[in-house]
Design goal:
GO terms for molecular function: ATP binding; ligase activity, forming carbon-nitrogen bonds; zinc ion binding. It contains eight helices and five strands, in the order E-H-E-H-E-H-H-E-H-E-H-H-H. The chain is an alpha/beta fold. Bound molecules: zinc ion.
């Protein structure tokens, strides 16, 4: 794959930034695409922008505000609480988001002559999002190849690993500190370690603690 181009679906968070570095190792050229759908914190777009600038990666920001128009949810509206009731999808679920993101990323790939699409979706820390499942991504890949009549390949390097293993992947790629200091995962829009309280921060921190413990690192 060394001679080929890839489009990475990129949000500036831990997972997609790890995927970005993974892609830089696998492909000759990497292009990042960020979707703007009026996320709670427009800071997400700024973070994505500054990371791609720092790495010298071409970055496309696509307007997907129609997603918020169709399905207002806790990621796009301040007045909707972030919550996860038993037996229900979390209020952060945006129906159809990955279907749209993968479709638009593939249309962009087609446009710029890239064969590969990389996304950080993951089934392991599965919070019930149906479009993060492997079966969905594979089915979407088949559909897009039929729709565009080309052999695109959707890569999901994080599909079967947990948060601790995602931190290990960052470490293996030599970018643990970069991911820790420069990415934004927090639902409250606080970069790096985040607010420490929201579900995204808890998941990120638990994974990091587990990874550091396994690695035998004692934090000051
Ligand atoms: Zn947080």
């Amino acid at each position: 794959m060394k001679n080929e181009k890839a489009v990475v679906v990129f949000s500036g968070g831990q997972d997609s930034t790890t995927c970005l570095f993974w892609a830089l190792k696998q492909f000759k050229e990497v292009i990042a695409v960020t979707f703007n759908y009026n996320q709670r914190h427009s800071l997400e777009i700024d973070v994505a922008k500054s990371i791609t600038e720092e790495l010298g990666i071409k970055h496309h920001i696509l307007d997907m505000s129609l997603l918020n128009q169709l399905a207002p949810n806790a990621l796009t509206r301040e007045d909707i609480e972030i919550e996860h009731k038993d037996g229900e999808l979390p209020s952060t679920f945006v129906p159809g988001r990955n279907l749209l993101f993968l479709s638009f990323a593939t249309i962009l790939a087609n446009q710029i002559g890239a064969k590969h699409i990389v996304t950080g979706v993951c089934e392991t820390d599965f919070s019930g999002y149906p479009d993060c499942r492997d079966a969905f991504v594979k089915s979407c890949n088949v559909t897009l190849n039929l729709a565009l009549d080309k052999p695109f390949v959707i890569h999901t390097p994080l599909m079967w690993i947990n948060k601790a293993e995602t931190w290990k992947l960052a470490d293996d790629l030599g970018v643990l500190d970069f991911i820790r200091k420069k990415t934004l995962t927090c639902y409250n829009g606080i970069i790096a370690e985040g607010c420490g309280e929201c579900p995204a921060c808890r998941l990120r921190k638990n994974g990091l603690d587990e990874f550091l413990l396994e690695k035998g690192v004692v934090e000051k």
